[in-house]
Amino acid sequence: MSTSDKPGLVLLKREMARQRDDAVATLAAVRPLALEIAKSIRATGRLVLYGMGGSHNVNRAAEVLYRGLGIDARTLVASEALLAPLPSSPRTALLVSQSGGSGEIIELLGRPAGEEQRFGMTLDGDSPLAKAIPSLVAVGGPEVAYAATRSTLLTVVLHAALLDALGVPATAVKAEIAKPAVILPADLARTLAASDITVFVAQHALQGIAEGGALATMELARRPAIALEGGQFRHGPTEFLRPGAAVVLLRGAGPDKDKIPALARAAVEAGASTIVLDASGEPAIAGTVTVTLGRAEGLAACVAALYALQEMVVATALLTAENIGVPVRSSKVTV
């Protein structure tokens, strides 16, 4: 079957092909509003990031970087906030929805803001979110493919623009955006396709990207997957490790650099297929299949890992999903 016979794959490839240009243009386009939001964050000293699905995952990646600036930052799943709202207090809030039409985000918008200063983050400037509150809008319009590839990168870039406005230069992120995707080991996709479960493990900023990798594996490859923060992985779940399972570890050059090797060794010793998407700049960990991504940390490492994850999940899905990118039980926008 040719690529043209897989309409979902065609859409995915189109989105992935234009994501770099859209990402570069987005950094410049959103700067004026990013400066305004940064002013609000400095004034309140507190930031809550609301999201669902892939948007929440990217919020998780950025959250630790905001906290690194001394900001009281937290992520909150929008559906959780609807059932158990935060007490009203002065804070800045980012409502993040790649589509701008997520049902929980729209319902949250309908609730009184109280003392929250609300801003949005989306790909669609014509969406209900963007029309309701001042929003950072990525260049290029909404994503049409299922599931998230370009939209994940652009949401990372929107956070990079805001962090840049707060004093964290986006120079390294720009450099990573420009890099081509890495060439994956020939048998990597077959290894993942043959595994009965894939566990994604990371720490610090890359934890949110690991969560996105697990989500994409379930959505596109239709394979069981879970993501665990590295410390949580050590506290019990290692009991499941065995031949037939796959562990994908994401490693950057930041605070997580020295935490990943011991986790990788535990997976290797248990006989699990162990893959490391490695942006640490350090030598490969013995016994692992290592995809070398250069050296990067923070959101730059997230960009590097995203490119590799996209290629890896799509290649796996071609082996496991009859009609890649055509949802059976889901929709592009959950309302």
Notes on the protein architecture:
There is one protein chain. Helix 10 packs parallel to helix 13 (298-320). The chain has helices at 7-29, 31-44, 53-67, 78-83, 103-109, 128-132, 150-165, 171-178, 188-194, 206-221, 230-234, 260-269, 298-320, and strands at 46-51, 72-77, 91-96, 116-122, 135-137, 197-202, 225-229, 245-251, 273-278, 289-292. The protein folds into two domains: 3-178, Glucose-6-phosphate isomerase like protein, domain 1 (Rossmann fold), CATH 3.40.50.10490; 188-320, Glucose-6-phosphate isomerase like protein, domain 1 (Rossmann fold, 3-Layer(aba) Sandwich). It contains 13 helices and ten strands. The chain is globular and about 55 Å long. By secondary structure, the chain is an alpha/beta fold. The model has no long low-confidence stretch (mean pLDDT 96). A five-stranded parallel β-sheet has the order 2-1-3-4-5, with helices on both faces. Strands 7-6-8-9-10 form a five-stranded parallel β-sheet, with helices on both faces.
